[in-house]
Amino acid sequence: MLSIKNLKANIEDKEILKGLNLEINPGEVHAIMGPNGSGKSTLASVLAGREEYNVTEGEVIFNGENILEMAPEDRARKGIFLAFQYPIEIPGVSNANFMKTAVNEVRKSKGLAPLDSKEFLKLMREKMQLVQVDKTMTQRSVNEGFSGGEKKRNEIFQMAMLEPELGVLDETDSGLDIDALRIVADGVNALRDGKRSFIVITHYQRLLDYIVPDFVHVLYKGRIVKSGTKELALELEEKGYDWIKEEVEI
Amino acid sequence: MNTLTETISETEQQISFENIASEKLTPERKLAIDTFNKSGFPSLKDEEWKYLDLSVLKNTPFNHQAPACTKLTLSDIEKYKVAGADAITLVFINGVYCPELSSQQRDNTFSIESVESELAAHWFGKLAKTDEPFIALNTAFHHGGLLIHIKAGQEVKQTIHLLHFNDSRQEAVAAHPRNLVVAEKNSKVQLIATYHSLNNFTSLTNSVTEFFVGENAFVEYDVKQDENEKALQINYVYAQQKRDSVFDISTVTIGGKMVRNNLNIALTETGGTAHLNGLTVGGKNQTVDNHTLVDHASPHCESFQLYKNILDDNAHGIFNGKIFVRQDAQKTNAFQSSKNVLLSDVAVMNAKPQLEIYADDVKCSHGATTGQLDEEALFYFRSRGIGKKDALALLNYAFAGDVIEKINNDALKADLLKLLAQKLNTEIEFEG
């Protein structure tokens, strides 16, 4: 489904990704861990199409198409969803209005008729339950005045609404207490259907107790330097990253 | 070439001699022309006009006495009504009230009569003085305006819609709408004014409206300016407020080549409240200038101003807001905010808030910000599948929405949101 080959990217002439390779098959959950500054969020940004990042080499093939030349909205319409590390507040647009626009834009790109208000409300009600989003949250402006937990729940709610093929979770767990973390993880798990894939970027192994990954990768200095199964995350939690750094430096 | 100034002096001669029936040539009109000819048009050297280029207006030979009511039919008017509004529509063509195109009055909570009637003379020109050149012009040439008189203790249930057309299809027309609204004690009314134009030639709409808001009366006045790209508009609104009255005005400016709004609110007695809201969405070759003056002359009054500009291409926005708090006006609350977004590198915004405070126990604040659209927010929308153009439109709508939200009329709100979407070139339906 997703094949990243020798991906190199920089921002303001500073190279962050230095030849990253990653293969993801349908239904798989890949966790990406790594110390600060290793390039985790850059990877998420490059996949979603953030324009400040400049890809200098390599390719990202998603369902047979190289997405690197695509606008962010086209990637979203093809089924890539980024859950933001810091969801932005947008006063003046209600969550419901925002989602209705987004859902219908995605549908339009697939040649489907837009949902009318009734159909949309039905879909929204169904998805709201997944991450315990209540009605007032959908009526409020996008993320405005939301707590950290509400913002992250809102990201997962949006993902549920848009039903992507690939969800990229950029440190969705950071800043969440254990209850909020559980709600978010339950929401993600409910979206695991054997076909939808996830990249879970995280700083903490804790999240992986709740969203159990098929593979764990360690990103360091812009490359994946170690891959394994969920046990690798436990090892990292216990021993930190120094041993990996040593392995790489040698 | 005939400049406007020359036309004026010509007209003056015509007035003095044959073209105007002698009963219409009142001393007031003659005096107004004299006053105008002495001052001439405002220039960029005039502090109150320093950002506004009036050269097109000055160089166009306008007809100030164009024919009116025969120009349009009922079916022409229909699409300019506010869809779904329960409104009494009063149609003005080139400033002249056209009864045959207007709704028949349906209740007795208010009356309408000529602004030149004996009754109207009690109020006419008491606020709008001819030392302002454009008011002098209006005073000289206005014709067919109305006094709308709301009776004491009455609430007008329907909205009164003043629908203005400038018809410059055959020639360059200067229209001089002149209307008076008197809301007596304890009355309540909502008025809408919409301005439209039909142009093959440059048009000028030079509108003056005076409001007298009685004790404990409630008046809302919502203005939609949607003339086209050959239209110039100068618009004066005066309001004098008595004790415990409320006057709310929202001005939404979408169309017009050049629009200058002048709002003058006088809080003359204790307990008055005024809200002034403005939204401008300006594009190619548009200049929109909002000048406000709120005069706090009495204690315990409040005023709130919220003005927003969205400026694209080479649009030019101007906001000049003055709050004047006199010595006796203790316990005044006066707030003013000017927020502006520039969508292009060549759009220009001049914002100038002014506070003059002579009382010592007051709460006043003002702020002006001008910036670009938030790139991060734009990316957020795009990352959800919303195309760049629509994402921009949605962000602009988010920025503009709270001004439209202040309008207490769902039909007009929906109408304005539709117009906003059109102007922002999106098919997304904005929701109120």
Protein architecture, described:
- The complex is a heterodimer of chains A (250) and B (432).
- Chain A is built from 10 helices and 12 strands.
- Chain A is α/β, with parallel strands linked by helices and 250 residues long.
- In chain A, helix 6 runs parallel beside helix 7.
- The longest helix of chain A has 15 residues.
- Chain A is globular and about 60 Å long.
- Chain A starts with a strand and ends with a helix.
- The mean pLDDT of chain A is 92.
- Chain B is of the alpha/beta class.
- Chain B has a 10-stranded mixed β-sheet, with helices on one face.
- In chain B, a hairpin with a 2-residue loop joins strand 1 and strand 2.
- In chain B, helix 6 packs across helix 7 and helix 7 runs antiparallel to helix 8.
- At the A-B interface, helix 2, strand 7, helix 3 and strand 8 of A face helix 6 and helix 7 of B.
Strand order of the largest sheet of chain A: 6-9-10-3-11-12
Q: How many strands in all of chain B? A: 20
Strand order of the largest sheet of chain B: 2-1-5-8-10-12-14-16-18-20
- Fraction of residues in H or I helices of chain A: 40-55%
Main sheet attributes: strand count, strand direction, barrel closure of chain B: 10 strands, mixed
Separation, N- and C-terminal Cα atoms of chain A: 33 Å
Helix-strand pattern of chain A, N to C? EEEHEEHEEHHHEHEHEHEEHH
- The string of secondary-structure elements of chain B, in order, is HHHHEEEHEEEEEEEEEEEEEEEEEHHH
Largest sheet properties of chain A: 6 strands, mixed
- Largest interface: which pair? A-B, 31 and 26 residues
Q: Predict the CATH topology of chain A.
A: Rossmann fold
Number of domains of chain A: 1
Q: Could you tell me the number of beta strands of chain A?
A: 12
Q: What would you call the quaternary organization?
A: heterodimer
Low-confidence stretches of chain B: 1-7, 9-20
Radius of gyration of chain B: 21 Å
The CATH class of chain A is identified as: Alpha Beta
Shape of chain A: globular
Number of helices of chain B: 8
